[in-house]
Amino acid sequence: MVPVTSFAGKTVAVFGLGGSGLASCHALKGGGAEVIAADDNADNVAKAAQAGFITADLRNVSWAKFAALVLAPGVPLTHPVPHWSVLKAREAGVEVIGDIELFCRERRRHAPDAPFVAITGTNGKSTTTALIAHLTKVAGYDTQMGGNIGTAILSLEPPRRGRVHVIEMSSYQIDLTPSLDPSVGILLNVSEDHIDRHGTIECYAAVKERLVANVQGGGTSIVGVDDGYCRDIADRLDRAGKNVVRISVKNPLASGMHVEYGTIVRTSGGARSEIATLGGIGSLRGLHNAQNAACAAAAALAMGISQDVLQNGLRSFPGLAHRMEQVGRRGHVLFVNDSKGTNADATAHALSSFADIFWIAGGKPKAGGITSLTGFFPRIRKAYLIGEAAQEFSGTLGSEVAHEISQTLDVAVEHASRDAEASGLTDAVVLLSPACASFDQYRNFEIRGTRFRELVQALPGVKPVV
User: Fold this and answer.
1) In the chain, how many domains are there?
2) Structural domain includes residue 251
3) What is the DSSP letter of 330?
4) Which of 134, 204, 328, 357 would you label with 213, given CA atoms 20 to 30 Å apart?
């Protein structure tokens, strides 16, 4: 836990008592603050009370005593309308911040030189965060990973010299961290997302920009420049005198790092050097993962990690569960769990990564279905359709792609594995990438992916991928 000493002897309101909210309560109390906990959900309030915190309806208390409102990132700060607790705080002149802001203040107080790597972007945040954490561990760092991925930041060990915090940040979290100042900041990409919470894509991009714009003096801002928003952001950082490393997987760069035929290349002042190769690394297949790897490599180099250690770390990266996870192999058939592919855009990354695919898709459909994936249909040898979307997807595939309506995951795995093995293809892939939410048959995508893994591992002759 990170004790929050910056509010010692003061009273702080915490609204939103999920994982990060409760962690904030514990960290504030551990640092000497008095905490008043609140939530619109009565069950969450009861859990906080059971944990020993004072709870109250913040509509009926005096805000004059509060030094700050710590808001959970899921609670609207600005759009579509500010939450009532935010309005109360503003009326009383009380600052509204989040748990990562509390961490930043403690780091500046106690260990300003401790490495702090912050990662954001519309896509690829979790993989890049996990990869950087893996690389720093391989390099011998005491590594703490959390934020928007896994563990709440205040539940991690506190910052200190030699201990690196690798933190995934959503736009909601950045919005609540006014003094965000990582030593290495990474912005992977920007595309339309979360407009309901930010109003316009321009506002969304501006929030993302703050993570790399506010890197502490002497630090490194790493920006993927394969979209127009990020190219403009990188140019603004350059003009502001920031140390910017541009990353591209689509075009060579005069200065920065790009990926060329599976090799990460660094260019500067006309000089060119090869940094690491990605060929044969199954956990980093696809153009999207090449961008993740290049950004992670730039972060590793900025922290002084050698190229040999970097290459070894890339090769030993196991990948993330449910994200292009290689769960087993039987003969020439590879089984891949991409249950995190809950929409067509995410599934496009998976389909682009293989040539001979036996595709398991379906679930609770989303707007647009799979019509945007027609360009990948030639890669699909057969599709196995499950859940509520089965009939809709069948209509989209039509006669262009062989398919069956399997209805359930267990039937789909059985039939896909049988057909893939019988195909005689040397690199057949049974791919679960549903392009759908899971809620028709599973509580979340993790449970769906875990079930796929169990079904695959129960097949005779399946061996783990080394």
Assistant:
1) 3
2) yes
3) E
4) 134
